[in-house]
Amino acid sequence: MAGGLTSPPIRRSSPRWSLESDNVDQIDTARRSRQMWIEAAFVGPPLRTGRGGRRRATTAQMLNHGIAHELMDEVERVSKAHYANCREEKFKEFARRTLEAGEKGADVKGIDWESTFFVRHRPVSNLADLPDVDDHYSYCNQRQVMKQFASEIEKLSERVLDLLCENLGLEKGYLKKAFAGSNGPTFGTKVSSYPPCPRPDLVDGLRAHTDAGGIILLFQDDQVSGLQLLKDGEWVDVPPMRHAIVANIGDQLEVITNGRYKSVMHRVLTRPDGNRMSIASFYNPGADAVIFPAPALAAAEAERADAAAAAYPRFVFEDYMNLYVRHKFEAKEPRFEAMKSAAEVVHAAPIATA
Q: Does domain 26-346 have CATH number 2.60.120.330?
């Protein structure tokens, strides 16, 4: 990987998603069958594959997902209050230094304009150890609110995985088992704020990337936009919708589904007004889970002439993450190729006989 991994060129125009257009899927789970729900959920024109299969770009907005609106409102309230009371002053100092450097000519495009903390839920929770949480909330228990919300999101993640299994013709529970490893999946939440930026031309809120893991469920601000997806070479806005959950597919599900569902490049833009809240929960494989295309899906592709060239690698999730943290903001395809090359080196190594 000398010289680093490279990304393909991207056109920079930014058409807005319209709720009346084919570019956005607005999913009301209460009014669709399970099969129709997952067929419609993930955006992007279907692409022909072997045996009549289809590939889709994979991001959706879910409505009537079963999570109480009152709980979501409480999560939003305590998250925004936590930023105002515990993180805003620290961010202001970071913002001052970043803008000062950028206005003096320094390249600050490698910096993300966000204030973030992470909560780990599985395999072992760190919620009780997080500093500042609860310090300013005598009127509520923020830890309990976040714990309840995480429980609901975890159940929804597993429901989505089973719906994907159903749509792909896999046995129920296959994807959950594929994620399990020896100690179950990893599951955590990234709580982010994207404060106003007086110079959106200098810095992005979060640079373009695909997510490394499995299924990502996002509860985003319904008043302040900024999230964009790369679709057909152009950036399109994901419109804020009240009480919606945005579902996104990560790199591991692309591999396991043998490309039937694709991870999507996305980014967050800065805005001169409004403080955007983002609560993203990641349901990922366990660290030692071995990731590879589901045999049933790989077999369905076997007749395609380019099947060998398009084959996805087999690897341990932790090994992929070690690569991902160094190349997160680059194209995913070179990461897949690097894992494939690493596996070939292992298989080609001589066997010790003494």
A: yes
